[in-house]
Amino acid sequence: MTIADIQNLIKSDETRTLELKKTTGELQEGMHSACAMLNSDGGYLIFGITPNSHKIMGQQVTDSTRQEIANALTGFEPAIDIVPEYIDVTECPGNKLIVFHLNPWKYGEEPYVYHGCPYYKPENITKIMPREMYDERIKAANPLKFEWDLKPAYEVDINDLDEERIRGVVRAGVRGNRLHASADSDSVEMLLQKLNLLTKEGNPTNAAAMLFAKNSRYPQFLLRMCRFRGITKDVFIDPKEVYGNFFDILDAAIEFCFKHLFLTGEIVGLQRVETLEIPYEALREAIINALCHRDYEQPYASASLAIYDDRVEITNPGKLPVELTPETIFLPHGSFPHNPLIAQVLYQTTYLDKWGSGVERIVELCKKANVPTPIYSVSRNEVMLTFPRPQKQQFEDGDSVKFSVSGPQVGSKLAVSWPQVGSKLAARQNLTIKQIAQHMLKYTVPSSAKDICHDFGFKDVYKFRRDYITPLVDGGMFAMTIPDKPTSSSQKYVLTEEGIKLLGAL
Questions:
Q1: Which residues of 22-84 form beta strands (DSSP E)?
Q2: CATH number, domain at 92?
Q3: Exposed end of the chain (fewer CB within 10 Å): N or C?
């Protein structure tokens, strides 16, 4: 490096990657800055330049100066091998600049400390690294020692794991050529060993419990779901809490999305193809990512799935890797799993891509479906991915009704059907007509006859459909999701706009 290079480097003020000191009289402060740059984006620490005026003065460098610098460098842990560069200052004969070139920190490396204290540079200032950041980097550097998913599961043995689930995902891994075909005939214990889900003592790890436990003893194995009316949490329609292993929760989340999001269908060839308003594959990828990368060391925090009129929010406890921000996560990047063993098993069984391309795939799926790009946001202990809902699905009443209304409009029959049905239900439930009306407002999302029947305490679904649901369909309050096949086993019912208005006015 030459004086000309230095002059070009210091044209602007000090930055996150440039620290200037007048002399080695500030050596200790300089070492703090060096530690901070080693833990951040690297850069240059230069002695012999006045910080405010950027005047290049240099300083006398003696054997004592070199020894002092060498002693100072021994204060770093892990130990560093940095050789300072000494550059002659021609304007000040005998004086030299002392230049340290510092490499940036990389994910998976231990954080540096100077005399036991870690520093980092949030901007152009040197600060003590927060404990949370330090712990995260220590864990990333020593995953076998610190990662939650690698620790022994609490009071869980192999018999507590779901063998059917294990063999099912192993078959998926074999079909995807990520597991050897011989795995199909292995014992459960052998499969768990091959997936590294057992400790040296042969006990299940936390990862094994999270993925396959039949009866979870962990409070964090929970997904909270809710369909909210409008765009706030003020009015909820369908709140649910699901406890279980990874695959139980994933299945429940996907079912909830199909229940509450707009679904269209068309006949392609001889098959009916159904399309969700937000691509199913994108939602599935996002939910898998949330469950895989969440912080399971927060025992009373949970992942959540919230559906509003204008958006879908998928939230998980934790934070983004330090290498990523809500903006850069959409760019090509490596894989930085928070739970590496869980991520590895999901990769081997084809549920997850190992190479950090999941977010790119979500974006591409949304673009292909011509729906808005999702948005990442982070808070102190939470990561949220928001899918904006296509605006064309929104209705004036503040709820999205999946299917067009068929059958008679509210009219003469309604005057007969609602009083009769409402009175019967009210008598059966020992409730008022108004209370029954308020309960029926939950059916602004399609529900099966069985679900509605059980909601009102009836056991005979056929009779309930005949005596209660059919009059509401005839009266225009309920619409069928498959109107051309009234007796279809997949048939569901949803309140029409007129039905919502009438019930809301009671």
A1: 43-47, 59-60, 76-77
A2: 3.30.950.30
A3: N
Burial of 364: CB neighbours in 10 Å, binned 0-12, 13-18, 19+:
middle
Q: Are residues 24 and 79 in the same domain?
A: yes
Do 12 and 47 lie in one domain? The reply is yes
For 317-358, how does the pLDDT look when each residue is reduced to its tens digit (9 = 90+)? 988 776 677 777 777 766 677 888 899 999 999 888 765 677
Q: Tell me, yes or no, whether 39 and 165 share the same domain.
A: no
185 with 88, same domain? no
pTM above 0.70, yes or no: no
In this structure, is residue 57 part of a structural domain? yes
150 three-class SS? helix
Residue 45 has pLDDT above 90, yes or no: yes
Contacts 24+ apart (CB under 8 A), 228-235: 228/306, 228/307, 228/308, 228/309, 229/309, 229/398, 229/399, 229/444, 230/308, 230/309, 230/398, 231/308, 231/309, 231/310, 231/311, 232/308, 233/306
Select from 120, 141, 162 the last residue of a domain.
Answer: 141
Distance of CA 318 to the CA centre of its chain: 8
Range of the domain at 165: 152-212
pLDDT tens by residue, 62-88: 999 999 999 999 999 999 999 999 999
Write the pLDDT tens digit of every residue in 300-316. 888 999 999 999 999 99
Q: Are 452 and 464 in contact (CB under 8 A)?
A: yes
DSSP assignment letter at 120: E
Residue 220 lies in a domain: no
